C-alpha cells in the first residue's frame, strides 16, 4: 500500500528546519541510486542517499545480475563474439519496442563498452567464460550468456546474434535470494562509501520540496515514523524502483499484471513516480511489463509450446521473457508444453540454475490422440500441430516458427503435457519520462529544474519488449548520468 501522507509538493518556505542537507540527495540505494551517488561524488558533490529499507541493495541485489552490455565489450571479445554499437542497436530497436526510444537506445549502445569498463574499474568482477545452454541465468560463475533471444527467431535474422548478458562473477549464488546482482551492488556500494557518500536508512520518501521558482530543493521523508526534511542544494535523484507492488497503479496502467507481481520487491510501490507526477512530470509506456515464464528453459526448448487451442505460437528456444509476454498478452495466459518421455528426461537431467522450475507432467499417454483427449482439446487440434511439426522436424527444420535446428526433433512416444496455464509473473517497465541526461520532463516537454531520475521508476530503453539485463543496464547507465547532471547544477 502507498503511504497515506499527502503527495503534493511542499513549499520550501514551510520547512522550518532541515534535518539533513547535501548537494545531491538520492532516493533509493539500488543499482540506479548507487551509480548516481558514485558519479555525483566524483563530480565533487556532497551526496546523501535515502534508503527505505535497513540496508543497501534494492531489487538489484536479489537479481540474477545480468547487465545488458554490448558493442564489443572486452568480455564479448574474450569469449570470441563480435559485436558493434550499430548491431546492438538494431537488435534493441526490434526487440524492445514498439515505441522504443531511439535516442536513448543509440546513446546506450554507443556508451556500452565504456560503461562495462566503468563497472570493472569500480571493482565488479567478470569471468571470461560463456554459458551457452538454455536457462534463466548461468548456473555457475560464467560471465556471459544470451539473455534476450538474440540468437532466436525473428531476431537472429534481423541482427547478427551476440550474447550481451554480462553477469558478475560469484560463487554460491541462490536465485532470487543472493544472485549475481549482489556481486554487482557490493563493489559499487564500497566504491561509493570510499568516495564519502553518506546513507540514511529506514527513510520512506514522501514528497518533494520546491522553492518559489518551482525548482526541486529537497525531499520530505519519514524515518522511524517521524517526518524529516532533507535539503538538496543542487539536485534530487529519484531511484526507488517500479510500481509493481502498487495495486492501484497496476489496475490503472498495467492491468494484465493484476495479482501477478514478480521479480521485484514490495518496496516498489511507485512513490517516486507519484511524487514527480504531483509536480507535473510526464510518463511513458506505463502499460509496458516484463513477463517471466516460470518453467525451466531446459525443458521448454526440447518440446513444443501450444496454446489453449493446441496450436504453437512461439519458438521454444527464445528468451523466456518473450515467451512470457507472448503467453500472457496474446494467448490468454494459456500454455501447455508437449514433450516426449526421452526429451523430458534429457531436459530434467540437464544443468540448470533453476531446478525448482522443473514442472512435472500433468498428462501422459501412449499416443498424441489419447493425450489430446485427456487434455480436453478438440479432436484433431493437437494431432495436426504435432503432425506438421514432426513432418518438418524429421528434416531438422521448423518453417513455421524457425526454432533452431539443434533443438528440432520429432516428438515421439510416450508423450506428455505440462500444464503451464497461469505460469507467468512480471514487473513494470514504464515510468517517468526522462532525457538522456536523466532530467525528469514536465508534461510541457521541459525539464523540471533540480529533478533527475533513473532505473525502474523511469521509462528506460524498454518500451514494450525486454531483455534480461536491461533493468540493471539502463539503471546503472542512466543512474550515472543522473548523478553527473545533479552534481552539475548551480
UniProtKB/TrEMBL annotation:
Gene3D superfamilies: FAD/NAD(P)-binding domain, Succinate dehydrogenase/fumarate reductase flavoprotein, catalytic domain. Keywords: FAD, Flavoprotein, Oxidoreductase. GO terms for biological process: steroid metabolic process. Signal peptide: none annotated. Its cofactor is FAD. Residues 23-469 form the FAD-dependent oxidoreductase 2 FAD-binding domain. One of its GO terms (molecular function) is steroid dehydrogenase activity, acting on the CH-CH group of donors. This is Putative oxidoreductase.
